[in-house]
Specification:
alpha/beta; globular
Length: 256
């Protein structure tokens, strides 16, 4: 069986991104999203998540490019590479505050990933394991295959659940309908997470500090495309989410 989780990053970044994520879920194949507790449109994302409970919501833990909750007067490092040498940030405390902000708002995340894939770094992966255990968030994004060998080992040893495959990184900023159709046709057996970045390219997003602007609109259109939906049906791919898989596992444990 081929199962596919279509997961959007950056829920809470801007209103244009939030509304694009919801549209991709309502009208397209998007099944999940991860919320930025430090995003400028975090509060709108919370309202939308409650209005659309069928959207599986996780948490997008942020260590770069935004303001830290643990030290609001000081910006987070500008890139993942700076984290390698920066020991001034208490990563566990920052993650803890971000997760608590989401929980206190009434959202129970089912999965964890990190902004800019910082959990490919072993010290970040260890902090993710601790948060996964502490807050009972079982699923963690499989680290990038070309960089995250040791992080995968750390997550596995910590009991984190991961999909069999992760895709979408190389297509970031370039994902359109033909590319998405090709990816679906080539999906391997097992469970795959596809990372996407949909959004409406309007004034707010155009002014935001991100390289992904018009590409978000293109991805949104691809996620709602009839051609993509047809490809999923013809390939026998089952759309699912972390929430669905967690609930199914809990039901099996209860019945056993």
């Amino acid at each position: 069986m081929r199962q596919l989780i279509v997961n959007a990053d950056d829920f809470g970044f801007t209103r244009d991104v939030n509304e694009g994520i919801i549209e991709a879920h309502r009208q397209g194949i998007l099944t999940a999203a991860t919320m930025m507790a430090v995003g400028g449109a975090f509060h709108q994302a919370l309202l939308l998540a409650k209005d659309f409970p069928s959207l599986d919501v996780g948490i997008h833990l942020v260590l770069v490019g935004e303001r830290a909750l643990s030290r609001p007067a000081k910006a987070l490092p500008g890139s993942p590479y700076q984290l390698i040498w920066d020991n001034s940030l208490d990563i566990e405390r920052e993650f803890d505050l971000q997760i608590r902000r989401v929980l206190d708002a009434g959202i129970k995340p089912t999965h964890i990933d990190t902004h800019k894939h910082t959990h490919v770094l072993p010290k970040v992966a260890r902090a993710v394991v601790k948060m996964s255990k502490q807050y009972g968030i079982p699923w963690v994004r499989r680290p990038l295959p070309h960089a995250g060998y040791w992080s995968v080992r750390i997550l596995q040893a910590g009991g984190c659940r991961m999909t069999d495959h992760f895709t979408g990184f190389r297509q970031t900023g370039k994902l359109d309908t033909p590319e998405l159709v090709s990816m679906i046709k080539a999906l391997p057996e097992g469970l795959t997470e596809l990372m996407v970045h949909p959004g409406f390219c309007r004034d707010e997003l155009s002014k935001a500090k991100t390289r992904l602007k018009q590409s978000r609109q293109t991805e949104l259109e691809a996620l709602m495309s009839p051609a993509v939906k047809k490809a999923i049906e013809e390939a026998g791919v089952a759309l699912t989410s972390y929430k669905v898989l967690t609930n199914a596992a809990n039901t099996q444990q209860t019945s056993a």
